[in-house]
Amino acid sequence: MDLITPEIGLFFWQTIVFLVLLFLMAKFAWKPILSSVRNREQSINDALASAENARKEMQNLKSDNEQLMKEARAERDAILKEARELKEKVIADASEEAKVKADKIVADAKRSIELEKQSAMAELKNHVAELSVEIAEKIVRKELSGKNEQHQMIEKMIGDAKLN
Amino acid sequence: MTAQKSLVISLYFALAFAIFPLFTVAQEQEQEHKSLQEAGEEFNATEMIMHHIGDAHEWHFFGGGENSVTLPLPVILYTEGGLVTFMSSEFHHDTEGQHVVEKDGMRFVNLHEDIYRLDAGAEAVEFDAEHHPVNASKPWDLSITKNVAAMFLTVILMLLFFTSLARHHKKNEHAPKGFNNVLETLVLFVRDEIALPQIGEKKYMKFMPFLLSVFFFIWITNLMGLLPGAANVTGNIAVTVSLGLFTMLIMIFNGNKDFYKHTFWMPGIPTWVKPILAIVEGLGLLIKPAALMIRLFANITAGHIIILSLIGLIFILENAGIAGVSVPFALFITVLELLVAFLQAFIFTILSALFIGMAVEEHEHH
Q1: Distance between CA B226 and CA B25 in Å, rounded?
Q2: How far is A55 from chain B, CA to nearest CA, in Å?
């Protein structure tokens, strides 16, 4: 029966020792350990949350970047397209103008040629007329020695002149 | 990398504890053998076992009779004549009531680890037919016995271990390494597997110091009890009664209105059943911690008795060949006891947490 009869002395010491242990451990071990562990868990959770935030931010940034890139690309395309159009327009305009100018030059040339021709013809006519008059004078002087011959001459000349 | 290191440390511990029993076995064999030869009397297994699992006024290491090598411990007695203290070595290893110590005009003897004070004028103990002393009485014995000394050792170990962990936590934010990491894992085990599920998020912090203290106290004491020559502290009923009372008092003082209403006037049942249930539930308040107390005491004591019986078998049958069977069996049981040491600490703590949880639970109103 010794085995299951609690001894007062041991009971007394166990109670005292456990109370002291409880007090010392609570003050010097459990409280600092538990609070520090809790702080660490809190900071780990915070770190995880902030990492998640950073990841989201990164994603946002990335999509923003992509948006920007897209816009830039669209703008570039637009600018290029405009440039191409402008180029074509300029070329077209230039060739049009050139054509107009060329046509004008050609027309001017034609007109001046015509004028030159006319003036040359006029001169030629005058020349021919003068020549003809001189020839006629010489002939007349020579031919008009006889009357018949004079008449013949005149008629022939008139006839020629009409043909002209 | 850290996890691996902790594993190695745990394995080292497991190995260390697995090897120690070998020494126990060897030592105890030798011990019994010597005392057998010296005493020249018949081997009494019950006496040997009771001696090993019981408390003692000196810490016995080896040797027998006058040649014992022991650590003397202080004897503190409270008598009608006031407090008397002397070292247990003054008994000269006598537990048969033969050696009388005279102190402050009073005479004391150690009779099977009970200290008796001889009545005035008596020179030696006289026994009646049932071997009870007739001319002596027991004073209050508050001695630092072997169990108390072992308890102090546990307290010192716990303070060393956990203040080291606390120091780490005061200095650093990051998780500890090595042995401190093992300790922290165990602390978190108590918090996450015992306190939180049983008591709940809101109130568990208040009971953490008690649960942690009781868990590590029981576990470390259990483990130390498996060492050769160590004391059987948690297998002593006085110790478990004290621990059980702590749980009971915490339960009773922290019980809320709902808890007492459900204990003494259970709602939702016919009125005539209520008093019957009140008696049952009221007794439950006592029986719950009593069950804790008996479970721990019985498990640890039973483990020690099995090991000692297996070793005792060699001497009962007086055949060294039996050692071939009983030593491996004792080794097996000792390894099993390593598991039981943890398991009993865990069960005591989780049931304490459960009872406390029941007492502080906030009921949904049905």
Answers
A1: 11
A2: 24
Residue ranges of the alpha helices (H) in chain A?
8-25, 31-143, 147-163
Residue B360 tokens read as 């502080």
**pTM (two decimals):** 0.74
A·B CB contacts under 8 A: 126
**Contact list, A7 vs chain B (CB under 8 Å):** 55, 141, 236, 238
Interface contact B352, partner A, CB < 8 A:
no
Q: How far apart are CA B75 and CA B90, in angstroms?
A: 10
Contact B142/A30, CB-based, under 8 Å? no
DSSP secondary structure of B25-61: HHHHHHHHHHHHHHH-S---HHHHHHHHHS--SEEEE
Contact A32 B210 (CB under 8 A): no
Strand partners, B141: B77
Tens of pLDDT, residue by residue, chain B (366 residues): 455 555 555 555 454 444 444 444 444 445 555 454 454 457 888 888 888 888 889 898 887 777 888 889 999 999 888 889 999 888 888 888 888 888 888 889 888 888 888 888 888 888 888 888 888 888 999 999 999 999 999 999 999 999 999 999 888 878 888 999 999 999 999 999 999 999 988 899 999 999 999 999 999 999 999 988 888 999 999 999 999 999 999 999 999 998 998 888 888 888 899 999 999 999 999 999 999 999 999 999 999 999 999 988 888 888 888 889 999 999 999 999 999 999 999 999 999 999 999 999 887 655
Q: Which of B350, B55, B79, B208 is nearest to A11 (CA)?
A: B55
CA distance B273 to chain A (A): 36
Indicate yes or no: CB of A18 within 8 angstroms of CB of B174: no
Cβ neighbour number for residue B358 with a 10 Å cutoff:
17
Residues of A in contact with B55 (CB under 8 A): 7, 10
Identify all chain A residues contacting B213, using CB atoms and an 8 Å cutoff: 18, 21-22, 25-26, 30
Q: Complex ipTM above 0.85?
A: no
Indicate which of A2, A5, A30, A46 best probes the interface with B, i.e. most B CBs within 10 Å of its own CB. A30
Place of tokens 């007349």: A140
Is B108 within 8 Å of B115 (Cβ atoms)? yes
